[in-house]
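Many introductory courses stop at the sequence. We go one step further.
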Amino acid sequence: MNTIFLVSAGNALNEGLMIGRSLELFLIMMAAGGVIALLFDFFRAVRKATKTAYKEVTYAVHIEDVLFALLAFAIFIFVVVVFNDGEIRGFMILGLVCGILIYWALISQIINKILFWIIYLLFKILSAPVRLVAKIKKMFEKRKNSKEK
């Protein structure tokens, strides 16, 4: 029995559109992976600038980890819902991983240094009033203790 397969221009056109859409989704997920990696570098710079990375594990570290996980998940879900109606495909995960790896290989070190200095300076500027109040409080406590003696 001979079977004849009919291939129409419409089928080829639809396949081309599907491949183009898949490539577009892959690139969008690569960009989302880059954003998630940037977010990771931000949290890494915060830890380094505020010196929570050098202390023993504190509640701040746990809060930062949970916050990063929630934000990364939110970015992933947002991109999947907005660009692919909530349908997750394997190549999209691959695109996300490729975006993260490309970001880390190409620009992570530079961005991490820039973020560190920005956060470090902001932390110093914003914590200066707190340190000043702490010094004034300490002076008043010393004065109070010396009067009691």
